[in-house]
């Protein structure tokens, strides 16, 4: 079967062909063409269009085309579900969803910059997703170095298990301190990592988190801390806005500007000017 999508792929338009060829149609052929040619060529070549608006194989809500293929074809491999969160985070600029999303975006963007032929880009990209699948399938618990935060989080959860009163649990108090301590050095904290370290199901942690963290989701809480850190850094003129975006864990300055304005009502440069006037 032939599949067709927009040219110059980076995330979803490489990840989806990998998923289709590995789990749906081993003989699948993929075509990359200019945006305006996708639909006309799909009809002429009897190819399935994907990852563009108003076709079946596309984004739905917060989920990307990779998610849809998993659901459409009833792929129940747990490793694929792990990959789906990473791909979604990279493809939708939600790097808080998984710590690996930032790395996947960086590698994919760099590969697209270096390789100008889309078919060759797909061939090389397939190797990236083969490697990511092997990690998700077999190596998630492997660590290059021992992360000291893991033992701390396990201790927090043990205390929570012993805590039976209706007050704010000790795990919530100590987790808040740990997150604040780590925000300067471990900006890739993810809910999945914390859940695994605490040995508690991520859905439970996600559901309970907001009760003890300013009525915010995990992602919103981390972003709030990043913005608070950015405000402190803005007071020092020696830091450029690009440096502050990097130091606070944002993927690029435009992402930083957008989130900062959402939280403060001003973009970073305007906010810095207001600080200097005081």
Q: Gap between N and C termini, in Å?
A: 64 Å
- Structural class designation: mainly alpha
> Number of helical segments?
14
Uncertain parts? 146-150, 183-187
Q: Biggest β-sheet: count, sense, barrel?
A: 3 strands, parallel
Indicate the overall shape.
globular
Strand ordering within the main sheet = 2-1-3
Mean model confidence by pLDDT:
83
The Rg value, from CA coordinates, equals 21 Å
Please characterize this protein's 3D structure.
This protein is mostly helical and 278 residues long. It is globular, with a radius of gyration of 21 Å. The chain has three domains: 2-139, no CATH class; 148-215, no CATH class; 221-277, Homeodomain-like (Arc Repressor Mutant, subunit A, Orthogonal Bundle), CATH 1.10.10.60. It has a three-stranded parallel beta sheet with strand order 2-1-3, with helices on one face. The protein has 14 helices and three strands. The chain has helices at 12-23, 38-45, 65-72, 78-91, 99-114, 118-139, 148-162, 170-182, 191-198, 202-212, 218-234, 241-247, 253-264, 268-277; strands at residues 2-6, 29-33, 47-49. It holds the Pfam family ChrB_C.
Tag the structure with descriptive keywords.
mainly alpha; Arc Repressor Mutant, subunit A; about 60% helix; globular
Question: How is this fold's topology laid out?
Answer:
Layout (H helix, E strand, L loop, with lengths): L1 E5 L5 H12 L5 E5 L4 H8 L1 E3 L15 H8 L5 H14 L7 H16 L3 H22 L8 H15 L7 H13 L8 H8 L3 H11 L5 H17 L6 H7 L5 H12 L3 H10 L1
Parallel strand pairs: 1-2, 1-3
